[in-house]
Amino acid sequence: MVSDMIKPISYYVNRNILLIYPFAYWYNRRNWLRGDMDMISTKGRYGLRVMIDLAQNDDGNYIPLKDIAERQEISKKYLEIIVKQMVEGGLIKGLSGKGGGYKLVKKPEKYTVGEILTLMEGTICSVACLADKNYNCPRRKKCDTLPMWKEFDGIVHDYLYSKKLSDLL
Most buried among 102, 150, 158, 161, using CB within 10 Å? Predict the structure, then answer.
């Protein structure tokens, strides 16, 4: 029964669960238009897994992407796209050639889950009118639900930015 599945948002937030569907989903226009309502895409989830893997296996040396892909059971080709974005965003650094790979640029306790997901996902918002400042919703001034979505997004933002990468190790 659907009503058995519906619980208050605090139930999910208090249990460290990032899935709050059916109440909301992270705004991602491409996925939203396709009807794919995952809250965090594979890009965000895999990016977080890469960061955890780099932290767990940090011995001071660069970690080959092949090793990360094998441990995480993720396609190396897909990880190449993800780590490129992470290098460009300043989360990790890479080295080519023999002895090359990737490593964190900071200690795990200096990263927040929010900064990692924001880099990988872009703006993390529940509704289009909050995700895109240029989105011109004709109901914005009279929308009765907008304050609720703003509060919800604030709760999620505060939660994600309060969690450190080191909390996940």
Answer: 102
Name which of 115, 107, 112 is nearest 55 in CA terms.
Answer: 107
Buried b (16+ CB within 10 A) or exposed e, 11-47: ebbeeeebebeeebbbbbeeeeeeeeeebbbebbbbb
In DSSP terms, 93 is beta-bridged to 103
Rounded Cα–Cα distance for residues 134 and 91 (Å): 28
Contact 74, 59 (CB under 8 A): no
Architecture of domain 40-125+135-169: Orthogonal Bundle (1.10)
Distances from the Cα of 73 to the Cα of 40, 46, 78, 114, 167, angstroms: 18, 10, 11, 24, 22
Q: What is the pTM of this model?
A: 0.74
110: pLDDT strictly greater than 90:
yes
Asked if 50 contacts 63 with a C-beta cutoff of 8 angstroms, the reply is: no
